[in-house]
Amino acid sequence: MAVIALITVGLTQNQPSPHNVKYGVVLDAGSSHTTVYIYTWPAEKENDTGVVSQIGECMVQGPGISKFANKVSELSNYLPECMQKAKEMIPVAQHQQTPVYLGATAGMRLLRLENENLADDVLEKVTESLRSFPFDFQGARIISGKEEGAYGWITINYLMGKFTKKLRWLFPLGNESNSQETYGALDLGGASTQITFVPGNQTIESSENALYFRLYGKDYNVSNGTIYDPCFNLGYSRVMNISDLTNSPCTKTSKTTLPFLQLKIHGTGNYQQCQESVFRLFDNSDCPYSHCAFNKIFLPQPQGQFGAFSAYYYVMNFLNLTSEEHLSQEDITDRMENFCSRPWKDLKTQFGDVKEKYLSEYCFSGTYIITLLFGGYHFTPDSWKDIHFMEEIRNTDVGWTLGYMLNLTNMIPAEQPVSKPLSHSTYVSLMVLFSLILVAAVFIGLIIFHKPSYFQKDRV
Ligand SMILES: O=c1[nH]cnc2c1ncn2[C@@H]1O[C@H](COP(=O)(O)OP(=O)(O)O)[C@@H](O)[C@H]1O
Ligand SMILES: [Ca+2]
């Protein structure tokens, strides 16, 4: 009876009650669009790692919120459709306890640089809209590039279980295995990029680690308002407003006064030339530290494994460059040369269902990513294999939003919580094993006491 009782206690202890579930909503207000993420986790296990998962995602129709700067009243119709979806996914009884956060990234950072009042108006309007839902709204703010990088890093390592403590007492001689080392995070958005990793033993020579890049080069090879661009496929052409180029704070210093308002771009589809001009965007001269990324920004030599997500994933996945098998630099160059040189007409025929804006920019975006990784962050053909392009882990999107929520809900404690040294299944197995040993011991004991002569018969 005692044995049965032991096993029953083992099996029933620690089972999360299926009803006690919490929810959280985070809105990622990016430069090109806004996405609403809905997360859930069992309340009892709040401080465990890897228990939060994504149950829903909703892409808001329309551009990023910064594009509403001059028509903020239109923002009142912007979020309701996706927030309604969140309302339907979360049980009514939980609405009031469900925190909602909105974080805006590079698009809003740029708008704030240009015009702080307009940025405030936009945030005020989305705040007003989010307050009208029955959730526990926690605020809408612009997050810094540093935070964006840090929360992406938290998300990826949380989802990969990198924060879980290994059972060291079971394997006291084993070294901290490689699998416990954290992954670096590579995020690429529409208007900013972040790289975040633990730099090993190298000293931090600069506390500044947010990275911004310029989207456009300084000088344009312009004549008669027509530009020949090697980063677009042959046969592709597009008309672009000069103001779109010069109105961004990123290009303020290079304001050129051109005698026309529009540019006509013609693709020439040449990967090598495209790569050379993109490479010129990264200033690798005069690093004041022992190692730099580009533009004199301190960056230790990348080390360890990296997860690359967001636009890194979308672009490299489209270009078939995400495979885990080792691709040599020649393979990558061959594929890019091949893709960029394909006539636009062929691409349109083959990928008719792909959004034209994305399809037309894949040659440029792929070239940009490869040049940023090799020429900007100084990955090598050898360390390329350490970059893993990923969209999601265990059905949860990789991005800064989960890390943001974990941090703001204090779900990642600063100190390692006092945790049980054994997993539930190991605990139950050991209980069963020791119970059987106990039964065997009692059984043998009984035999010895009842028939001692049996064991003594060989003695003289
Ligand atoms: O399917 C796709 N193919 C290619 N690029 C994509 C796809 N979906 C999104 N993107 C790009 O990913 C980027 C996402 O940026 P986001 O809107 O998060 O901006 P931010 O992080 O700079 O604020 C944008 O450049 C967008 O164009
Ligand atoms: Ca983003």
Automatic annotation (TrEMBL):
<dbReference type="Pfam" id="PF01150">
    <property type="entry name" value="GDA1_CD39"/>
</dbReference>
<feature type="transmembrane region" description="Helical">
    <location>
        <begin position="427"/>
        <end position="449"/>
    </location>
</feature>
<keyword id="KW-0472">Membrane</keyword>
<dbReference type="InterPro" id="IPR000407">
    <property type="entry name" value="GDA1_CD39_NTPase"/>
</dbReference>
<dbReference type="GO" id="GO:0009134">
    <property type="term" value="P:nucleoside diphosphate catabolic process"/>
</dbReference>
<protein>
    <recommendedName>
        <fullName>Ectonucleoside triphosphate diphosphohydrolase 1</fullName>
        <ecNumber>3.6.1.5</ecNumber>
    </recommendedName>
</protein>
<keyword id="KW-0325">Glycoprotein</keyword>
<keyword id="KW-1015">Disulfide bond</keyword>
<keyword id="KW-0106">Calcium</keyword>
<comment type="subunit">
    <text>Homodimer; disulfide-linked.</text>
</comment>
<dbReference type="GO" id="GO:0017111">
    <property type="term" value="F:ribonucleoside triphosphate phosphatase activity"/>
</dbReference>
<dbReference type="GO" id="GO:0004050">
    <property type="term" value="F:apyrase activity"/>
</dbReference>
<dbReference type="GO" id="GO:0045134">
    <property type="term" value="F:UDP phosphatase activity"/>
</dbReference>
<keyword id="KW-1133">Transmembrane helix</keyword>
<dbReference type="GO" id="GO:0004382">
    <property type="term" value="F:GDP phosphatase activity"/>
</dbReference>
<feature type="active site" description="Proton acceptor">
    <location>
        <position position="148"/>
    </location>
</feature>
<dbReference type="GO" id="GO:0005524">
    <property type="term" value="F:ATP binding"/>
</dbReference>
<keyword id="KW-0067">ATP-binding</keyword>
<comment type="similarity">
    <text>Belongs to the GDA1/CD39 NTPase family.</text>
</comment>
<comment type="function">
    <text>Catalyzes the hydrolysis of both di- and triphosphate nucleotides (NDPs and NTPs) and hydrolyze NTPs to nucleotide monophosphates (NMPs) in two distinct successive phosphate-releasing steps, with NDPs as intermediates and participates in the regulation of extracellular levels of nucleotides. By hydrolyzing proinflammatory ATP and platelet-activating ADP to AMP, it blocks platelet aggregation and supports blood flow.</text>
</comment>
<keyword id="KW-0378">Hydrolase</keyword>
<keyword id="KW-0547">Nucleotide-binding</keyword>
<feature type="binding site">
    <location>
        <begin position="190"/>
        <end position="194"/>
    </location>
    <ligand>
        <name>ATP</name>
    </ligand>
</feature>
<keyword id="KW-0460">Magnesium</keyword>
<keyword id="KW-0812">Transmembrane</keyword>
<dbReference type="GO" id="GO:0005901">
    <property type="term" value="C:caveola"/>
</dbReference>
